[in-house]
Amino acid sequence: MSIDGGAPRLDIDRVRELFDLRGGSVAFSGGGFHDDPYPRWHELRETGPVHEGMVHELTGFDGPAYWHGLPEEGRRHFSCFSFDTCDEAQRTPEVFASSPETVEGREIDISQISVFNSMLAMDGPRHRRYRSLVQPSFVPPRAQWWITSWIDGTVHGLIDAFVADGRAELNIDFCAAIPLLTITSSFGIPVDQALEVRSQFSNPDRMIEILEPIVAARRAEPQDDLISVLVEAELADEDGTRHTLSDPEIYSFAILLLGAGSGTTWKQMGITLTALLREPALVERVRADRTLLRAAIEESLRWEATDPMFSRWVTTDTTLGGVDLPKGSVLHLCLGAANRDPARWERPDEYDIDRPAKPSQGFGSGPHICLGMHVARAELFTGISALLDRLPDLRLDPDAPAPEIIGLYERGATEIPVVFG
Length: 421
Ligand code: HEM
Known about the structure:
By secondary structure, the protein is of the alpha+beta class. 44% of the residues lie in helices and 12% in strands.
């Protein structure tokens, strides 16, 4: 990747390899699943909100499906499919914990650097302490900081690179790069290492090699970026003593944020563009009235949440949705099914930007609700709005296959070939 006249130029083949739901690094989470899972999820919900089994098994998919809470062999697995049960489990963290350690009364070992040792897996006061360290950088008033510092330049640089061609493949040329470059830049990672970071999440040693010199530089001289926030942040222990984060703590934070920040918004942006471009009249309405774009984004998060499942570990024998769940079992929250629960939304399978606004489960709920949701919204809005501003008569390429939404635990569009001008 190089910078050419301000436009980030990606090694397109490498991007295609890393951001293809059908192959490469995303295939392990059900990328081989090409059916529409929603009819099956409706059937399951109609016979009861909670079922024994894992979401992919219950959906009829027997390919590789590693994800949050999976495989967790040796435990009983349950999955819930209604809005109310998914919401209740997320809002009752004493019973539905975010890691197996909590069930076993052990503390997460943060010296082992991994996404599973980050705030995503923490519970109770420790989760609140870690989350509140970075929360101030992710609140709605900070959205403009993200837009001005990183999102705007990336979005326009990417459009500059294809605007003269009259055509683009938006999944690779646009959607994939925006969140990756936003989050890596906020960590001070140079553009030419961004793709390597994306490919090395499961290799903590390489991630540390990349992050170590940046952390050292920010300790010496902080800048106006997210890595400086982490380097300078003071964590209050339970007894009230305060200390700055250790290097392993910073690396675990970094791996979580770099992963969560680069792997989700890409797919949600492709889903939103697919939903809009399938209905040219809708594109024109949103082009003419940009306030509708906010509704289009929220509806996309409801209609087709890119990560339709997260999991919890049951800390005590309990009952949910009329089903007994023994201590130690894993509960999979099918947020995708919750988002199409007819008890909450009329005509739930329709993408309808005019429906009355109601929170969905696209970003989850409860104490672990997506930390980055306002950054994601800022990326989605800035990116799609810039396409509408700069590409007249933007439409799907009539001579290419239409985009399809595929995948099981990570859902997103295949190619999004468009023409314009
Ligand atoms: C459209 C894009 C996104 C979607 C659909 C999404 C979805 C989610 C969901 C459903 C959760 C809850 C997980 C759970 O309860 O176990 C979550 C958590 C999280 N997300 Fe996002 N996310 C998106 C973008 C982002 C971005 C851009 C960032 C960072 C810049 C981010 C950072 C996080 C973090 C740190 C957590 C863990 C929060 C905690 O455990 O307290 N996400 N996300």
